Amino acid sequence: HIPGVGAVFQIHIIKELDKLLFIAGEERALCLIDVKKVKQSLAQAHLPAQPEISVTVFEAIKGCHLFAAGKIENGLCICAATPNKAVILRYNESLSKFCIKKEIETSEPCSCIYFTGYSIIIGTNKFYEIEMKQYTLEEFLDKNDHSLAPAIFA
Question: What are the tens digits of pLDDT across the range 106-118?
Answer without folding.
Answer: 999 999 999 998 9
